[in-house]
Design goal:
Elements (H helix, E strand, L loop, with lengths): L4 E6 L5 H12 L2 E3 L2 H10 L3 H9 L5 H6 L7 H19 L2 E4 L3 H4 L6 E7 L2 H11 L7 H17 L14 E4 L4 H16 L2
Parallel strand pairs: 1-3, 1-4, 2-3, 4-5
Length: 196
């Protein structure tokens, strides 16, 4: 298989992280998720907790500050820019799976990128979040919707293409078919696109 970068965006509780791990294992390629936080911290010299916080804080002026030189980037902007650079550097290194962090947006024009969005019915997502992830909520549906809104806000800060819009992805998969089966479909698509 030629160089392939598989990015996975996902609804909370859809199993996208686990599917990403399975895809990386099946294809024998590197998997990146939370490691990106520590890589960004090393690149910038910022504290790990600060870089985690950056992922949760929305700054509507970010794109403007990156693409124009009219204002001095904040430390939040610097950390985000560094994380985007880390993602681009990893994609340039070779085949890998990158989960979340707007990687599909950052690598949208990379011809080696396979952009995937994982979703599932709410009932399945609640089951996975509460039983598999051991998350505790008073109102699970509201909590999952809130997490997805935060992901969408983070993504939409950097892209003119809305998070979750099927037109942004090569594949959108309902993970209720099974995580292993979803991973197999992604692997088959990647192999078909890039060859053996």
């Amino acid at each position: 298989m030629g160089n392939a970068i598989i990015t996975i965006a996902r609804q909370h509780g859809s199993g996208g992280r686990i599917i990403g791990e399975l895809v990386a294992k099946k294809l024998g390629i590197t998997y990146y998720d939370k490691e990106l936080i520590s890589m960004t911290a090393r690149k910038t010299g910022f504290a790990l907790d600060f870089v985690r916080e950056v992922e949760e804080k929305q700054t509507s002026s970010f794109l403007y500050s990156v693409y124009t030189a009219t204002q001095v980037p904040t430390v939040y902007d610097q950390a985000r820019t560094a994380q985007f650079e880390v993602i681009q550097e990893l994609a340039a290194k070779g085949s890998c799976v990158i989960v979340g962090r707007a990687a599909d947006c950052i690598l949208f024009n990379n011809p080696n990128c396979v952009r995937v969005f994982i979703h599932a019915p709410m009932k399945e997502r609640i089951r996975r979040a509460t039983e598999d992830y051991k998350e505790v909520y008073d109102n699970p549906e509201r909590a999952l919707n809130k997490k997805d809104k935060a992901r969408a806000a983070f993504y939409n800060n950097y892209s003119e293409r809305p998070w979750g819009d099927t037109r942004n992805y090569h594949l959108t998969l309902d993970s209720s078919i099974g995580l292993e089966q979803a991973a197999d479909i992604i692997c088959a698509y990647t192999m078909a696109k890039f060859g053996k």
